[in-house]
């Protein structure tokens, strides 16, 4: 995350297997951006190479919209999808994981971020059974 965002709006969109159409808005909320921005920038983040889905997306998508004092916005997508850690040389099997991307950088979503988003925005019921 560049700089210091001044606000954050997070939205949850339905994933597959729900009564609602995939990618329709489930819920949105405002957050203080500091905690989530710091976690996404933390040294604990593991850089990933997202791979094309094999078998489809496995959960909902969160869209994080960070706003800056100059009016600029940065959008980060946090998804439960299929991805593979960097450095596996393509030999490791693709597995479900949680990752966030701003288009330039993809990381393993820190558990505290996902926990906070789910606590406020909820989760698709089928994900709880996984």
What's the helix and strand layout?
Blueprint (H helix, E strand, L loop, with lengths): L6 E7 L11 E7 L1 H9 L6 E3 L10 E7 L5 E13 L9 E7 L4 E3 L2 H11 L3 H4 L2
Antiparallel strand pairs: 1-2, 1-4, 3-5, 4-5, 5-6, 6-7
How does the overall form come out from the CA principal axes? globular
Tell me the radius of gyration: 15 Å
Number of helices: 3
Estimate the helix proportion, in percent.
10-25%
Instruction: Give the class from helix and strand content and strand pairing.
Output: alpha+beta
The number of distinct β-strands equals 7
Tally of individual domains: 1
Low-confidence parts:
85-95
Largest sheet: 7 strands, antiparallel
Q: What's the end-to-end separation, in Å?
A: 30 Å
Mean pLDDT, to the nearest integer, reads: 77
Oligomer: single chain
Strand content is 35-45%
Describe this structure in words.
The relative contact order is 0.25. The chain is α+β, with helices and mostly antiparallel strands and 130 residues long. It has one domain (7-86, 95-124). Strands 1, 2, 3, 4, 5, 6 and 7 form a 7-stranded antiparallel sheet that branches. The model is unreliable at 85-95 (pLDDT under 50). The protein contains 3 helices and 7 strands. Strand 4 (61-67) and strand 5 form a beta hairpin.
